[in-house]
Amino acid sequence: MNGKKGSYEIDIPTTTKAKQLESCIKSGGHGSDGGGSPSFKGWMWSVWEFAKEDSNRVKFSLKVGLAVLLVSLLILFRAPYEVFGTNIIWSILTVAIMFEYTVGATFNRGFNRALGSVLAGILGIAIAQLALNAGRIAEPYIIGVSIFLIGTITSFMKLWPPLVQYEYGFRVILFTYCLIIVSGYRMGNPIRTSMDRLYSIALGGIVAVLVNVLVFPIWAGEQLHKELVKSFDSVADSLEECVRKYLQDDSSDYSEFSKNVVDEFPDEPAYRRCQKTLNSSANLESLAIAAKWEPPHGNFRHFFYPWSEYVKVGAVLRYCAYEVMALHGVLHSEIRAPYNLRVTFQSEITEATRQAAELVRRLGKDISSMKQSVKTSLLKKAHSSTERLQYAIDLHSYLLTCHSDPPPDPSPSSNSNSKLLSLSLSLSRAVSYNLSDHDHQLNDPPLPLPLPLPPPPVPAESYHEMMRKQMKRLHSWPSREVDAFEEEGGGGHSLARMKALDSTAALSLATFTSLLIEFVARLDYLVEAVDQLAVMAKFNH
Question: Residue 540: pLDDT above 80?
Answer without folding.
Answer: yes
